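thread from #wetlab-drylab

HS: before we spend reagent money on co-crystallization trials with zinc ion, can we at least see a predicted complex? here's what I'd submit
DV: go for it
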Amino acid sequence: MSVSLLPEFLRLTRQQWESQDRLDEIRLAKLRRQVTRAWELSPFYRERFEAAGFHPSQLKTLADLSRLPITSRTDFIAAGERAYCSDVDIRKCVFAKSSGSSGAPLTRRDKAHRVLKELRALQASGFKFTDRMMILWVPRATINSLPILQRLGILRRYYATVFADESEQLAGINAISPEALYTYTSNFRILAEAILSDGLPAPRPKLLITSAELLDQETRKLIARAFGTDPVDYYGSMEVGWIAWQCPERGGYHINSDCLIVECMKDGQPVATGEEGELVITNLHSDAAPLIRYSLGDTAVLSDRKCSCGRTLPLLEVLSGRMADYFVLPGGKRLSPYAVTSILRDVPGMRRFQVVQDSDVAVTVHVQATPQAPDVQTVQLAVQGALSPDFSVTVDYMESLPRDPSGKFNIVKSMVAADPSKVGRKVA
Ligand SMILES: [Zn+2]
């Protein structure tokens, strides 16, 4: 292990309470290191910095970061190993993979830092080092764990596949009886529905960790009712790890701002505090593959509100989701998926559903119904009321709704490309 874990963990624990000035000093020092490494060791970033007329010596303040170009996921993937730092042996790295991409390499130090960052967030919600965590995820996906600590009975993690059916997953959880349970929000929802509708035995972990998908209020309540405790939600990406997290106050998501820099942009310009924009991330702890002004494709709002817990790590509000999840209205305006899902969930007889936007004016609703299935017209009117009466709505009743290959269950899918600048304001 190339980093000394305990001192770094203590540092992270302390930093969540530091003054803004002190946090900015820490961020600037780390940013200089990342940008200099990228300039010296990554041909991809060197070219882009030069094209922008930028040299690392010009990085005097955090605001100077805005002189650097924004990198899209597509640019980054296309660059392949040219984006990586040449002093790192990629063969010794692990890859944080997401569905559909080969992922970003992590050195052992990068990986250890991710674990520490997660641990700080979990500790805020009462997680103890000796607690067992069960993770229901995609088989073979890279999940952060430190085997050396697990052998000592610390941070013990148990993995199971998210593709098993509900009863099998619940039996697996009950067999281990973990203190913490971590899975996709949509999988928690599926398990909660099985517990409440089919009377399957409910596990009782003290900590439920939802991640990787939107957690709306209705889903939060459903999960709490089934498992007997309120979930705590985390926001992250495979490339960066955990970006922001809820403390026990549940008032927004604390950004790991001592470990990464989050910008909120629209049309290439930062939006005002409180306005929704696309998230652009600079990871301050990636030795193998620098992520500098990396566009995640997610939208959110940066807040200047202070959390009542007293932590100084700033808050991210309204995680309104990945751009791909938005509906596109005639004229190109985007509409939050909540606008439709919150209405469909109130339709009696729905067990599960998925809404697919097929074209500018057509959607299909796949419905897995209870024995009291809603009729076609009820579903059509609900969707038209939320989107527009101009939409043609096909209702497709199914025995069960399959998951995506990623293991997630996307309630909303759009097959319509849209202009990201036309993000809808309506967020339920
Ligand atoms: Zn807080």
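DV: The two ends are 45 Å apart (CA to CA).
HS: ok that's useful, forwarding to the group
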